[in-house]
Amino acid sequence: MNTLDQISRTVENQKHTVISALVPLELALLNFKPASDSWSILECLEHLNRYSRYYNPALAKAITANSGNNSQQSISYSWLGKKSLDMVRPDNSKKSKTVRHMNPNNSQLSRQTLEEFLDHQTELLQLLNKAKNTNLNKKAIPVEFFKLLKLRIGEALEFMALHQERHLQQALQVKKQLPVNQAAA
């Protein structure tokens, strides 16, 4: 299985996890915070939505501009790409400071956050499919918080999936901490 297929499978699993484990929860539980400085389930998803609002259009533009004959399906990693991926890997237990405009702490969120997340996943899966005819090693995705730096298309696609996995695991940890009498619902 190639890298894009692996990333697509990861994103499909993430979408399924949200539908099966999080969508059925009541709004109060989705907004439950285990501690004042931690994120609720919806805040985890809103953080990912903020990234998707930036990266999905950037990826769409880059994939369209770099489709065609020079398709390169294996990803070679730049220093920036390796560093970015290592930072967001779910098994990296080191907390990262979130840039202010990407931090949803204490946001008023509704079920719309879930719907938007699922829409972004559908869009990302379509982008992964389109990327099969693209040079994945083209440096074309400006880093959100420092646009002079660019990730390769393949690195950015993998970053999205790993970053999402990290925060979905965080959301599932919050779910485990929900008040017992309500979480079983």
Automatic annotation (TrEMBL):
<feature type="domain" description="DinB-like">
    <location>
        <begin position="16"/>
        <end position="171"/>
    </location>
</feature>
<dbReference type="InterPro" id="IPR034660">
    <property type="entry name" value="DinB/YfiT-like"/>
</dbReference>
<protein>
    <submittedName>
        <fullName>DinB superfamily protein</fullName>
    </submittedName>
</protein>
<dbReference type="InterPro" id="IPR024775">
    <property type="entry name" value="DinB-like"/>
</dbReference>
<dbReference type="Pfam" id="PF12867">
    <property type="entry name" value="DinB_2"/>
</dbReference>
